[in-house]
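Practice record 12: protein with zinc ion.
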Amino acid sequence: MTETMPRVELVPPDIAAYRNGNVGVDWVWRWTAAAPGPHVAVVAAVHGNELCGPIVVDRLHRLGIRPARGTLTLALANAAAYLSFDAQRPTASRFLDEDMNRVWDPAVLDGPRRTAERVRARALRPLLAEADALLDLHSMLHEGDPLILSGPTARGAALARAIGLPAWVVADAGHAAGLRLIDMPPFGDPDAAQTAILVECGQHWRRATAAVALEATIRFLAHFGIVDSAVFAAHRPAPGPQAAGGFVRVTDVVTVRTDRFRFAPDAHGMSVVPRAGTVIAWDGDDAVRTPYDDCVLVMPSRRARAGQTAVRLGRREP
Ligand SMILES: [Zn+2]
């Protein structure tokens, strides 16, 4: 299936000046204020082809942002993949050896296998696991409403609702293929206090995506009293009109079974399908139908192959 990819509107920032870090791990910077407060972390470029996160981290560095209280950690996670970004082949730099957002299970990190992403994740883990709250900035290949993935915990959902942008909050249990950073202990533990959320800020290369990423980051930092949002007054592009949004809990995973899976033309990310039984896709000769009224299509992937997730289905909750 061919699909026209959006033009690359965003310019990947030069991150060379941030390589050395100040905590002994490349690309990781940390500052602690005199006043006590929570430790928050902003993480970018877990996927190397997603430009909005590095744009935000570059902005924070350039503005010389320092915490008014507590501790702020800024991390460019898969900087090596990001540095391989090529606007002529913009999907190729997603990772070097494997998806870095599936390696955060302690059994994987403590295991023997070496990949570029595992080596890097092992270096980052102790630094990131110290954060009281973590914001992981991502973007999406396909067009669709931006959303916050709050993971499975109630405190993740509460933080996502408090941030309020993007307006869609999706509670989900992650992926069978491996733990995401936001699922890593202690963040994914039901009884822990530390919280991590992932923001899908929009399409990878759209200008609006960077504005959403910056606004979500400003709100996240202000929420914890780390940085007053007024600091950003002159550097806060309006993120544009936002979708109405709401809270969605993932109930079903649609897995591709044949090599002839295709979505209905109007199926896009965060579509709300009013009637149960509506055909949203075909897999070979079989129709894929919504199981209940007001079913939300979460991040449909038009590139999924047999055995991969085509879309997740969610139910709206108050
Ligand atoms: Zn991503």
